[in-house]
Amino acid sequence: MAGDASLLRRVNTQVTLNALRREGVATLTRLGRITGLSRQTVETVLDELAGRGWVREIPPDEGAMGRPARRFGFRADAGHVLGVDIGANKILAALADLNGEVVHWRRVHVSADAPAPERLESARQAALACADAAGVARTRVWASCVGTSGVVDRSGRVALSAVLPGWTGVDLAGLAGGWFGCKGLAGNDANLAVLAEHWRGSARHAADVVYVLVGHRVGAGMLIGGRLHGGRSGAAGEIGSLRRLGWEAATAELAAHGEAAAVFKAAADGEPAAVRAVERFAGDLAVGAAALVLAVDPDLLVVGGGHSRAGEVLLAPFRRRLAELCLAVPEVVTSTFGDESVALGGVRLALDHVEREILGL
Q1: Which end of the chain is less enclosed by CB atoms within 10 A, N or C?
Q2: In this structure, is residue 197 part of a structural domain?
């Protein structure tokens, strides 16, 4: 019987907290109507949550007549989560509250040939500076998630990386957790990016999604049935490792023409050599993307990463080549978040942990 009562209290707490997070601010009567719980039960739950610091009572409006209804709000600032993108040339950290709203960004440059200890120290400093600049106590960061290139296994360790020097074998999840003494998580950059797009970006309303990350490197991530598909070892989507597809060579060839942004701008202006370079790059990109499309038959294909800022200059030739290779071409769109997708996906994964393991949702 005691176990049944404990379970009932947990369920009541879950449904009340979920309802309050959706509503933002609500009265006891409103929460009782939404949850189906009695006013007394809701009041007891809210007082308990207020004691934990997760809920606050909203003072009545000045000048309100009669006995005002008690109003409560979820304290999104009770804790925070951090998402960090560790790339070849940049480190981008995003600190968010418990509603997933980013309260501070921190971006720093890092050399592409920086050794692993230097890159990790830059990431640590960026993460801590992000919290400090936002005025958030480090103990209030409840989970930290890092995204990076390469194969990241389920424990958060880099199983294989061909892009960053000395990166294979690095325990990113353990290191990320050590920055704040909290839960540390890590994932492949393209996988985190597709999570971000499904959460609040271009793929919000799609269940089966292929995401192609195009920047310093080319990678891919997939959602199947609305769930991230990482595969047995975390290597799902890593078709760029198949050299015959030409993704690595295509990236190198584009870089050989100069800064990618300048090449895309010149192509937009109609400069013949730049147009040809972009069309070759888009064509090679489409070959690998077509393999994923033919395997998954997705609702949507999202092109993200830094090069996605080129927009239709890249997407138009990419779509044309994709149509030649696929039986059924999905809708192709650019990322909502560009090169911020990976850090935001880290926020989402960290928030998943907090909601499940701390808030009990």
Answers
A1: N
A2: no
Rounded distance between C-alpha atoms, residue 281 and residue 288, angstroms: 12
Q: Is residue 198 part of a domain?
A: no
Q: Is 47 helix (H, G, I), strand (E, B) or coil?
A: helix
- Do 101 and 63 lie in one domain? The reply is no
- Read off the CATH number of the domain in which 148 is found: 3.30.420.40
Q: Which domain holds residue 6?
A: 2-74
The residue whose two tokens read 């309802």 is: 19
Within-domain flag for 65: yes
Per-residue pLDDT of the chain (361 residues; tens, 9 = 90+): 556 778 888 899 999 999 999 998 999 999 999 999 999 999 999 999 999 999 998 887 765 566 778 899 999 999 999 999 999 999 999 999 999 999 999 999 999 999 999 999 999 999 999 999 999 999 999 999 999 999 999 999 999 998 899 999 999 999 999 999 999 999 999 999 999 999 999 999 999 999 999 987 888 999 999 999 988 888 888 887 777 777 777 777 777 666 888 889 999 999 999 899 999 999 989 999 999 999 999 999 999 988 889 999 999 999 999 999 999 999 999 999 989 999 999 999 999 999 999 998 7
Do strands 158-160 and 102-109 pair parallel, antiparallel, or not at all (unpaired)? unpaired
Q: What is the CATH number of the domain that holds 13?
A: 1.10.10.10
Q: Is residue 172 part of a domain?
A: yes
Three-state secondary-structure class, residue 109: strand
- pTM, full prediction: 0.90
Which residues fall within 8 angstroms of residue 72, CB to CB, at 6 or more apart?
A: 20, 25, 26, 27, 28, 31, 46, 50, 55, 56, 57, 58
Beta strands in 41-126, from DSSP E residues, in sequence order:
55-58, 71-74, 80-86, 90-97, 102-109
